[in-house]
Amino acid sequence: ARKEFHVGIVGVLFGRVEEEASSQRSLEAIREAWRHERRTRKMPSSAPASGTTRKVKRVLETRTDTPDMVAALSSLSEFYHENHPKARQHLRAAIDERSAEINESMLEEAKRVMEDLDLVENEIARLVEACDKMCDTLTESKASTFDLLRETERLTVELDANQRRQELVGSFLGTYQLLPEEVTALQGDAISKEFFDALKHVQEIHANCKSLLRTHHQRAGLELMDVMAGYQEAAYEKLCRWVQDEFHAMSDDDTPEPHELLGHAALALQERPILFKYCAEEISNMCHNALFRRFINALTRGGPAGHPRPIEMHAHDPHRYVGDMLAWLHQALAAEKDIVSALFKDEKGGTRTNLPVSYEDTLDKIFEGVCRPFKVRVEQVLSSSIHMVDIFKLINLLGSYVEMLQGSIGDSSLLARTIGDCKGLAEKSFFDQLNGSMARIQRNPPLPPRDLSPPQVVKDVLQEMSEVLQTNSTVRSQGEEPAGLDRLVDGFLAPLADICERSASRLDDDNQSKLHRPSATYCVYLINCRSTMLSAVSGQPALRKAASAMSQTLDNLSRELVNREVGNLLQECDAYELVQRIKIHHEQSSDADVLRDPALAPDMLVEALDRLFGHFASQQQSLPEFQSVQSPSLRSDLVRKAASEIEDAYKLLHGSLNSSPSKAASVHTPAQFRTLLGGLV
């Protein structure tokens, strides 16, 4: 620092000296110019021309743009202000005076610099003296504290070694020993989060002790394992009792709320399969007894203070009675599932399966006590005098709960199987009652009414079937094909069709109107019955198969009725045999045989055509049997079909007269006959 300070001072001094030297050089340049001018003036007059020439030449050769000339002129301009002869005469004196002033100022500046240097030198001397004193003091202190520093270094090394030993001891204790607060948490009465943390630490220590068994510290490892095993056994027994107490408290509540630590307790118990199995069996027994008591109380006593009311108060209403029991069981199932799920939950929130007792078996054990009372009460309802429609409502109700439970707890669960058995009993009771009712009607079929309309028994059966189907449609979703619906429809329609045929067989020809013929009345009566049955099953997508079969049967009956009516009419006109003979010849593809057949002589054909045309021309209504058909649309269809058959027969007879054009011209054409029939249709 002292050296740098001296260098700085010297730099400042040299700067000032350089400035003074520059000013001095400028004055020297001015002085040299003035001397030159004086020499030129003192030259002898004997050579004026040559001296002037030299001066001029010198002046011309002088360069004014050199740095020295520019600096000299700049310095001259600072004190030479007026350019006149007197000033030029005293120019040298002025320059000398200026040079003296500059030298004096330079001396003054140098004096001040020297004074500053003296001050700096004094300060440096004092700093050197202070540094020497500090060095002497440090030397004395180092000599006096050497032993202390050596002792401090030794103690520092020992402190580091002790700290490493402390860390090793702490790591060992953390790996193989419990903290006092962890021991307190394990041996205390309450179950908390600290208990599970301590139990987890015990398990980790027990696992770590196995590493000691592979070293020469086997005795320490065995002792530590024995201590940790004692802690574990006591903790698991305490945890098992706590879990049983918690489940016992929840089993008596209709809407239980599992404890937040119950899942941790179940996960811990799952590590001990035998203890977990014992705990699960005890819990299932407690929940079984508690659920049975709550179910019986709900049936006979109801809720607190009579709200809700006892379920058996609605035993007179089978649908509500069974529905309330099913609703209670479904609600209890949701609560029990939450309880059992907390016991079988794994770390990811799912249900653990690799356990000595399964989730499904535990749930079945809990509901085993309520399945039998529920089934007995359903059997009592079915054995009472209950209407067939109400039984079918119970079938749908039980079926919906079976599907719900199968999707929730599986079809192999005890509760789902019990409700499925009850549904089977209801179906058996329904079809037994349906078959018994139909059998009674079949044994004593009703007499057909005089107007050949369906008897009241048929209408009543169809009304019951409509109510049953309406009940089914309110339960099932739209567009769904319910299983067993075909059996249900066949249970109504097949016996009903047999009843209609048995009733039609009781038609007495003597008691019928003259407008009725035995074959026609039989067909008309069956057509009326079948059309009524078809209208009962039409318009329902689930009954398309039954409606199609019924429509086919109705078409067959309609075709048979039309054929019989047309045949009777042709026989009345003596044209039936002729038409049949012509059809036989056409089937054999022998048109020549038609001309040679004596039974198909032109005169006979003309007479038959005239009688046939005259029959329809003389009577306003030639098909009286169709008036007994109850359905207007079906009646119109029968008339159109009959008219078409008669027109075809007329065309067939008229076409056979091609061999005798004169005879064919004497009868009405098929177009005229079609016009006549059009008025009747």
What does this protein look like?
The chain is mainly α. It has 24 helices and no strands. Helix 10 packs antiparallel against helix 11. The longest helix is centred in the N-terminal third of the chain and has 86 residues. The termini are far apart. The relative contact order is 0.03.
Put the structure in a nutshell.
With about 675 residues, this protein is mainly α. It is built from 24 helices and no strands. Helix 10 runs parallel beside helix 12 (about 360-385) and helix 11 runs parallel beside helix 13 (about 390-410).
Pick out its properties:
about 675 residues; mainly alpha; about 0% strand
The proportion of strand residues reads under 5%
**Whole-number mean pLDDT:** 77
**Helix and strand sequence:** HHHHHHHHHHHHHHHHHHHHHHHH
Q: Give the CA-CA distance, first to last residue.
A: 140 Å
Low-confidence stretches: 1-14, 43-49, 477-481, 509-518
What is the radius of gyration? 66 Å
Largest sheet: none
Topology overview:
Blueprint: H1 2-41, H2 48-61, H3 67-79, H4 85-89, H5 91-176, H6 180-187, H7 193-212, H8 218-251, H9 262-269, H10 273-300, H11 318-344, H12 359-383, H13 388-409, H14 414-443, H15 456-475, H16 485-504, H17 518-537, H18 544-572, H19 576-587, H20 591-596, H21 602-618, H22 632-655, H23 661-665, H24 670-680
